[in-house]
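thread from #wetlab-drylab

HS: before we spend reagent money on co-crystallization trials with beta-D-glucopyranose, can we at least see a predicted complex? here's what I'd submit
DV: go for it
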Amino acid sequence: MPQIDLSRLSLEEKASLLSGQDFWSTRPSEDAGLPSVVLTDGPHGVRRQVGEFDHMGIYESLPSTCFPPAVAVGSSWDPDVAHRIGAAVGREARALGVHVVLGPGVNIKRSPLCGRNFEYYSEDPLLSGRLGAAHVRGQQEQGVGASLKHFAVNNQETDRMRVSADVDERTLREIYLPAFEHVVTEAAPATVMAAYNKVNGVHAAQHHRLLTEVLREEWGFDGAVVSDWGAVHDPVASVLAGLDLEMPGPSPENARRIVDAVRAGELDESVVDRAVRRILALADRTARPSDGADGADGADGADRTDEADGADGADGFDQDAHHRLARELAAECAVLLRNEHGVLPLGSGQRIAVIGEFAATPRYQAGGSSHLNPTRLDNALDAIRTWADGRGSPVEFAPGFTLDGSGDAEGLRAAAVDLARASDVAVVFAGLPESEESEGFDRDTLHLPAAQTDLIRAVAAQAPRTVVVLSNGGVVSLEGWHDEVDAILEGFLLGQGGGSALADLLFGGADPSGRLAETIPLRLEDNPSFVNFPGEQGHVRYGEGVMVGYRWYATTRTRVRYPFGHGLSYTTFAVGDLAVETTGDDSARASLTVTNTGGRAGKHVVQVYVATQAGPVRRPTRELRAFTKVHLEPGESRTVAFDLDRRAFAYYDVQDAVWAVAPGDYLVQIGENAETVTAEASVTLTGDTAAGHLTLDSTFGEWITHPVVGPTLLQELTAALPQEQGSHIGDRPELLQAVQDVPMKRVVGLAGDGLLDETLERLMARTRPTG
Ligand code: BGC
């Protein structure tokens, strides 16, 4: 942090620096040598506004490349994809005069209904964290800061600015915080954005425990904490909690409240200074030569926003190259869910009926603050025609439905069905219209509009072969038509190159290599959050605990349509030679061989899960602990290895507030997806012998089953008990069972005359955590 003398600034000036100068930039201060920092939305492109400002996607922004949104990147299972997007966004941000691009979002997809799921990566924290960290690295390597959001437990849009996400500590630590923790500790984002919602009753933007104790003291975050736009309620509580910058601004009223609090002795001025210093450090960190040598340009020049007015900026960006990149990366993200009779890739000479308005009018991003103005936009219909031209495949198109539901639905459907009947293969482009999902509200159903499902069924009944291509930000139900179609390619939202990428995949120019980053359930009611989403009377109870997404489906053996991790390729893969060895007390190394057993080059996602019943808490059946995406030529084999550290085996122990590894057996499983294990090997870990820390409140059962002191206690008890009560207490199961749930302090009482006191004291000492 730059050591700057803040004594030149009055308290009023300092307080005024703690909120923005406008919608998208911070206040400059000549006295403090502080230039203005421009923060703007993203993160799958740059939403740079220069005229009218808003954070709801209402007004236009300057053109920038719309890369695949997070929902698609999640499905790529490829940190390299996230890194390349981050880097390209960083280049465009520089060109557009932006210092911080707001994102990525690493919130967990708790319910498939969340309106913002398209902005998040996954239902799994490991996958979310790895992708988020890669994005941040890519972007920050370009000198453009990231803003990791929305910290924390922001998993729904309903009542999003007030609702209290009520979540227990283990669930917080194991599910909702790890992605943030990973990005903060591995990629050091310049800023973290405090969310709108409350966490256990306290606004995230004034949550001292989250913003200071966890984020800074535990994880070592040294950047600035920025509020979500309009998330500050009590500015004094926020700055005390560790929030540095309120956005948007200006907020003279809040500045005054901060000044008053200092004058009234309720807020130490050093707390204000600390926040100012962090904003200075942010400006310093994101400064670039065009901002002026000392980072400030003087009174007016200190406002660095001028750089973007020409749209191109000093260093410009290569729109063609970025569009090609958007297309290439989009092809890495789509998930081939089903492919019966080898209908895909499409062969030569087939008569192709392209059906569905989305083929001509692509759905490629969603509404709200991340809504971009793309530099160009590919549609699948044109791209299919280009591919088909070279292969002697005639292409006809029928819209089949309208996006807003207007018009003659039956007539449109009938025309599409006629076309399908006369084709060799019908490719139906279905999905959610932009009006059905957006930031700001949650969906209330997983179903596609009825006009589309009716169309799919009608086409499938007539066409020799039917392929469905989907465009949607949150998962949609496939029920009612799944079995009637031959193939399903789930594109989610693929950005501006998505139309071409889908055609590349349909014709085999690219091999599908996406895998689901979230489960597709059979019924909405099967989702673990169902009865507690979106909450009531200001509270949403995270009643499913750690059993989020596939953790729940696998543990309860609930059938799903497609599990987390599922995705097909045009080639086939086999894994073998799994070997797992411990590499320390509580870590292991797994290695295995992956072979491309098919006839085409392709990419396989190796998914490593850990399964255990060890420890005192209920564990999900399996949890993703490592993954990698491997490119293999036909017949090629490669050995891949994974280091599984302590955390891969740990649970969060709420009694001792530590990550604990329970002594015991662990299965390392290689999953085709979260449901299908193709290889497994077990390891035994020493674990934390102190994990079961005993007190006099621990039950008799916990004492005698304790791995370290249990046997000793049994022995000593047997020796101490009068003979007529039995020669060995361990031989009296009914006695043990009757008292197993009695706290030891009561058992001591029962035994009377201090019999156990000394023994228990000694044994307890042996179970105390060592660190
Ligand atoms: C959103 C943020 C966004 C901000 C600025 C808020 O409404 O929740 O994700 O970065 O607006 O547009």
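DV: Confidence is low (pLDDT under 50) at residues 292-314.
HS: ok that's useful, forwarding to the group
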